[in-house]
Amino acid sequence: MNRGQSTTVATVFLVAVIFVVGGSVAYAGNEVVTGAQREPVSAAVTTDVDGRNVTVTHESGDELATSDLDLVVQGEGESARLALDAATRQGDGDGSFTAGETFVAGHGLSGGEATVRVVHRPSGSVLARDEFDVPVVGTTPDPSAAVASYSAGGQDGGGSLTVTDGTYRLSGNTWKEVDFDYTVTTDTVLVFEFNSTAEGELHAVGLGTDNQGSQPLYKVYGTQSVGSTGAYNFNGTYDTYADGDGWTRYEIPVGETFQGDVSTLVFVNDEDGGGAVESAFRNVRVEER
């Protein structure tokens, strides 16, 4: 999905990836490769992962067409497949992948264990398969931090916010803030994943200053249109979530809108009529880019 994503390259999600190299037919994702197409290849390919990117390097062996290669990344509950020629090249750009050349692609993962494969589609060969512990980039909120009503305009309607394994879940008409000290610069990005199974009027998140509504709240879902009204300043640029999207990653460059010290992380799950609306935010962090 990644509707709110601003920088991550890998956007096509898979249900499963199966490779059968020894038989007469190979399966690479959803693509069936017949025996007649299966030309053997011999190449040494390595991968590496940091907090943002996967790096793929051709060490030695056969020259490979970049259009024949896929990068498959499987994380905790996340899977993505990327054609290697869509990644950023550090080579001569001639459409081939030869010894000494490197590609770099954003993986879109938020930490945790991940498996990375480089697949040669015509042969069904897995040229590299590596497992990594992906580091978390940036600053994450303390899951035990104090939670208070965010009521600059008297909107908190008595719903609930719970925190379990770093996931913030809101139900009912709920406006809450969590202690979170940070200095926002022009390079600050707010990163999180959002999910909702019951739409309300406003589902939003932002950085704030002790119950004050001057900093933007970024709407990602909901039936109500937004703008700078009353005690709040809502930004609707990232209002892209749709029913059934499931967990969706957002990267919001908050530093393009404001800079300075903040003291809270704000969550909004608004439904003035008191309906059974829900929001969930996980893998929340801010980072500098």
Account of the protein in words:
The protein is mainly β and 289 residues long. It folds into two domains: 109 residues, Sandwich (Immunoglobulin-like); 142 residues, Jelly Rolls (Sandwich), CATH 2.60.120. It is built from no helices and 24 strands. The chain has a seven-stranded mixed β-sheet, with no helix packed on it. Strands 14-15-24-17-22 form a five-stranded antiparallel β-sheet, with no helix packed on it. A four-stranded antiparallel β-sheet has the order 3-4-10-8, with no helix packed on it. A hairpin with a 3-residue loop joins β3 and β4. The two termini are 23 Å apart. The N terminus is likely disordered.
Strand content: over 45%
Number of domains: 2
Radius of gyration: 22 Å
Basic shape: elongated
Counting H and I runs of at least 4 residues, what is the number of helices? 0
Query: Any idea of the CATH class of the largest domain?
Result: Mainly Beta
